[in-house]
Every structure is written in C-alpha cells, then in structure tokens.
Amino acid sequence: MPSAARPRRRRGFTRTYLTPKQAIPRRARVILAVGSFVFVVGVWTLLAALVQNPLSALFVPSPYQVVLTWWDMMVNLAFYNDVGWSTFRILAGFLLAAVVAVPLGLLMGSFEAVRSFFNPPINAIRYMPASAFIPLLILLQGLGEDEKITIIWIGVFFQLVLMVMDIAHRVPDEMLNVAYTLGASRWTVFYKVFLPATFPEVVDALRITMGWAWTYLIVAELVAAEHGIGSFILIAERYLRADRIIAAIITIGILGLITDTLFAVIHRLAFPYVQKVRA
Amino acid sequence: MSEIQIADVAMRFRTRRGEVRALERISLTVPDGQFACIVGPSGCGKSTLLMIAAGLVTPTEGEVLLNGKVTLEPGADRGMVFQSYSLFPWLSVRRNIEFGPEIKKAPPPDRRKTSSELIRLMRLDGFADAYPSALSGGMKQRAAIARALANDPEVLLMDEPFGALDAQTRQIMQELLTDIWQRYRKTVLFVTHDIEEAIFLGDVIYVMTSRPGRIRTTLKVDIPRPRTFDTLTGPRFTELRNQVVGIIHEESLKAVESELVRA
Predict the structure, then answer these.
(1) Which residues are paired to B215 by β-bridges?
(2) How far away is chain A from the Cα of B171, in angstroms, using its nearest Cα?
(3) Which residues, in sequence order, are CB contacts of B171 under 8 Å at separation 6+?
(4) Which residues of chain A are within 8 Å of residue B153 when distances are taken between CB atoms?
(5) Are residues A105 and A198 in the same domain?
(6) Does residue A38 sit in the same domain as residue A88?
(7) How close, in Å, is residue B90 to chain A by CA atoms?
(8) Every domain of chain B and the residues it spans
(9) Domain count along chain A
(10) Over the stretch A101-131, which tens digit does the pLDDT of each residue have?
(11) What chain A residue is nearest to B83 in terms of C-alpha separation?
C-alpha cells in the first residue's frame, strides 16, 4: 500500500486551545494563571512609570511602592488594628445573620406554611439595598458597633435565607420518600435525610454571602466609623494617599481569599462524598 | 404470608383546566410470593399507583390492604425502590443498606451481618465503604435494592428501577433480580414501561390503559422458572411479547388521539 493516504491526528493550536470546553494541558493552565498575575502587575507598573506629572504620580503609585506603604501601615499606623475591627464586625454580623437565616431558610424550604408566611416580606426587603439603611440605622443606633453589625446582618440575612430556602426546596422527593418506606418517621426523615441532604450547598451559600458581607461592611465604615479598614481608607483619601487606599483594598482582597479558602477546606473535610468539578 | 391488595383505587387531580382522572377504579391483589408487573404507556398513572400502594400518596377513592389490613401511612412493611436519587449520598454503601435496620434499632452486629450478606449477594464486594457517587448506575440500583431488602419488607415495590440504565446493564440487573427473588420469594409489585422486562420478571402482568388509567388486561406468564438469558429467545416469550406490544400500541395511539382532540 502506498504510505501517503494514512490520516494523521492533528494537534494544532486551534484544536488544543480553541475547542469549546476542551481541557488544556496542566502546564498551560499554570502558565496562564501565573501569567495573568504578571500581566496585571506589569500593566500597573507601566502605567505608574508613564505618569510624568508629579501630582498625578501621587495617585498612581507603583506596585512596589504599595508594598512598601503596606509595610509602613502595619508598622507605624497599626493598620492591623483596623483589620481586626473590620474582621470582628464581619464575623459578628455574619454569624448572627447565619444563625437565624439557615434554620429559617430550611423551615421555609420544607414547610409550605412557613414559606407562605415569610416569603413575601423577605422577598421585598431583599431588593432594598442594605447600604440605604445606613442613615436610618445611624439615627436609630448611633455610630457604634451595633450599627455596623446590623448593616451586615441586613445585607447577608435576606439573601442567605432565600438561598437556603431554595436549597431545601430542591431536595428530591424520592430521597425523602425512600426513607419513609424504610420505616422512618417524619422527624427521622427531617434530621436524618432532609438536613444532611442540604448541608453541602448550605456551606456553599455561606461562602458566597460571606463575600458580600465585606462590601456592606466597607460601605458602612466609609460612611462613618472610628476604626476599620473603611475608615482607614476614608482618612487616607483626606491625606491624598492613594498608595494607602490601594494597599487597604488589596488587604480586603487577601482577607476574602483567606475566608474563601477556609470555607473550601471545611467543605472538603466535612463532605468528602461530594465530587467537585475543579474550579 | 404477605399479600398486598389494591381495592377500588381511583385518583383524580384538580387542575386549572378542570378535573383530571388519573386512575379509575383499579383493583388487584398480589398474593404471597408473587412477582407482579404493571406495564402501560407513559402517563397512564402506573407510578402514581405504586406511590399509592406505598402509602406515599393518598388516593381519592379506595384503599390499600396489607394482609387484609387497611394501610394509611408509608412504612417499613412496604419497601420501595425508585428509578433515581434513591441512595443517600452522604452515607457509604454499607450505611445506606443499614439505614432501615438502624431506624428499627437493630443491634449493630445484626445490622452488619445483614448488610454483609446483601453486599455479597448484590455483588458489591469491595464497595462497602464507597460513597454512592463512586458507583456506576447499575451498582447504585443494586445498592438501593439491597437497602430495601435489608429491612425485610412484606412487599417490595419497584418503580422502573432499571429505567435509567443502558440495555446491557438492565439485562444483567434483571437476571440478578430473578435470582434474588427466587431466594427470598418476596411479594413484588414492579412497574415498568419495558414489556420484555415485565415478561422476563413477572408471574403476572397487568397491562394498563392510557389516561384515565385502568387495568385493561391481566396476563399470566406461564414461562417456567428459573428464567435465564435463553428465556428471551424462546417461542412463548415472543408470543407473549407480541400480544402485549399490540395492546400497548393501541393504547398509546388512543392517548395521542385524545391529546389531539383536546388541542
């Protein structure tokens, strides 16, 4: 047989990288991930270098300058104190919201009577932005910690309760029915089947709403606060210190990344049976 | 003795477009140790009938009797196997199988003995500690059947348990189920839309009509047991199949026509 006719598998660039939903080589994935970081820092450095006007240069610090500023903030301005205050407020507001929202959401998802009663008001309030409540809460509660915590509570609670309700509502009927035909009572079905069936997704919902909590906190602190990352940012603005603002914002990002990783670790340890698609 | 009786059961749903009659005066008795199959066109209400038998749905009229006694609630005496979502994903195969005995507060050594036996019988060896997400579709259903059997129910209700499996796996599962049934001689009520499956497994086949569901024909399957793969190619099997196919085809046509009239 002549050898020319044999078809060969093509391994071109298009085939590897431009086929929708096609996995790419692991090395390429790592290079792209690192590359995106390098790209962002690179563009930023370039912009900082291009700005010639000294006044403008003040507002566009280089990445290196920001790192130095961050260190200076920690050592000389006790920035860790503000980080601590903000973290405390987040944790308090978030935990208080979760402690009420998760049980209520589970009840709303499983009992139509509870759902019919709570759903209309919660759904309506969900569309009222938490930040719009700040002036009202300042009038009611003053400028203390309870005002900050309440804002986070409002921002997290109404979203979380509906997410949990939805999760509970999606538990397949078959799963509960099978338990009944295995001799389980209503109560046994509730705590041995229904609750465990919702847990992994509830932890996911907590992770997502935790991210939103940071937004509400910073807004609350920007409006009025004595300590906290938000108030630090506001003071930095008064002194025209863009480098400090950027360093503070990046700190929030890192804190978010840490909490997110914590939730992911909890998820993996508590629910080893869930097979997750790699994010 | 474990006999389940469905007595004059009717089911009607109220919808915005008026009342829908899903099931109309159905009566049947599955005597002790019989394997009864219900086949019918899709939407004929055969799954609803099984849910009623399990006590998970309350019929508009009629009642379900177990050994002559009226049943009102679901219970461990009528074990059920569903088509999907049936295993608890957070429990290992063994803990899934032990779920019923655990609720009954059976002593742990007894539970373990039961589950070990069923794991071997259902050919799940080596997967006792695996989570359901690690199992294939066929293995999942084998575990689900094992879980129902672990409870030693009076009656086993099966709602298209092999409906989501591929043809080869389904065949293997049917053979396994006949073996298991020969061993335990449970009273079984098995719902399927697969005619060959019904003939291969059943002692009796109830053929249902399209909506409103009624029992149109009752057929005795006089193919001797134990049935094996060769049963499928026998002349009696073909004969019975052609008979049921004819009836179902007629009913499916009726269903389509009535949909056209309504539209």
Answers:
(1) B208
(2) 24
(3) B229
(4) 181
(5) yes
(6) no
(7) 6
(8) 32-55+156-263
(9) 2
(10) 999 999 999 999 999 999 999 988 888 888 8
(11) A174
